[in-house]
Amino acid sequence: MLELAVLGLLKEEPLHGYELRKRLRDYLGLFASVSFGSLYPALARLEASGAVHAIEVHRSTAGYPMTGSLSGERTAFHRSRADANRRSRSRRVYSITEHGQQLFEDLLSGTSNENDDERSFALRWTFARHLRPQARIRLLERRKAQLRQRLVEVNAAAASNDSLDSYSMSLVEHATESTKRDISWLDKLIDAEQIAAHAASRPQEGARSARDVAHPKQHGNAR
Amino acid sequence: MLELAVLGLLKEEPLHGYELRKRLRDYLGLFASVSFGSLYPALARLEASGAVHAIEVHRSTAGYPMTGSLSGERTAFHRSRADANRRSRSRRVYSITEHGQQLFEDLLSGTSNENDDERSFALRWTFARHLRPQARIRLLERRKAQLRQRLVEVNAAAASNDSLDSYSMSLVEHATESTKRDISWLDKLIDAEQIAAHAASRPQEGARSARDVAHPKQHGNAR
DNA sequence: ACATCACTATATCGGAGCGATATATCGCCA
DNA sequence: TGGCGATATATCGCTCCGATATAGTGATGT
User: Fold this and answer.
1) pLDDT of B207-216, one tens digit each?
2) How many folded domains does chain B comprise?
3) Closest residue by Cα to the C1' atom of nucleotide C9?
């Protein structure tokens, strides 16, 4: 689900491949470290399917880098980074399209394509602010059900298998404990989300901004 | 590193592809669930490189299934399983070769091919009984260094990045905590291994079987 | 008697991702 | 001037996965 990560970053601002990879590494590094051998084909796929749109930005060397006309740069947004005026060869700057927005929401809610593993969940949760509260809770519940299922399977396999040596056993025990902790963590998050959803559904108390808490149409001030 | 898992299972007894996959799923299911689309090409690679040797075993239907002459079956070994006399179509039974034994040890000790991730370590630890005590400790220490490195990187990334929302932050916090627990677990294992190695190096007290604790040349009674 | 189902068993296909590598350009510094 | 490191895009070979094809087998059902 590299597409999801790419669309999630392009949703905030247009970016070219090299910068995308840096952000993938730095911001989502834990869950989506990616190589160019994956990124460029993924961008080509997204472009072919019409989810993103690329414009060629030639180097300007002098003055301002606003060469990318079509909302190309959103200048002085991440100027804290060292790449302030480093403009070198021509770049392909990708923007997300309407269709891409739709694809992003589909991938994020996970209604299609049940390819769920550890990283897939972590990536979705990173973009949880783009989900409705209800969908957020569904995501957490799905993940929890997965982990519980895995617990059952591991315990069953370990019980029916008496030929485990001490090394395998230590591995199984540690994995079981870790999974239980993950489930507890999910429970905590689910509680917090339910409280938030509950508070949002009665606007008479604490009435301010009960509606704009990550409604899917809310984009722009993504922080 | 599917090869490592396959060789580790074939080290115990010759198996055909379908049974290999079952054991990969049941015994090492947590860390190496594998599909036929991976397994059969991997077996073909191992066969091409001379690490395993395949013999065609045709069905016999009547009497004993000892058709696979060359140490083919090791009859009545896992008869507790339901596939006792289920002999159907012809199978390709794979055995590990001398070269395969060497390859297994190389992959297991990890001197070549530093492709270390979560599952890679878990898989190696599953076969830790085939390592010398010294190599076991090295494996644990390498894994620990990896996790510590990741902790540092994640903290640095999170500190330099002020645009993390609460969802990403909860993810980072949970991952940090989990990693710390993993490190503690590794510390525990390292301590235990060092005590065992220490005890094994002075055979004058508790002298029984200090030498046969998983020496690399000890094969045969692999359980 | 025959159909159907579930299991055993091997194999291949397309696609995704990775690591390595190739090819440029640019700024900097010795 | 020449090398080095960062920026930037792209491709190659490989591994792995999920899906699918093919086929033999025993049990179950009608």
Assistant:
1) 554 444 444 4
2) 2
3) B18
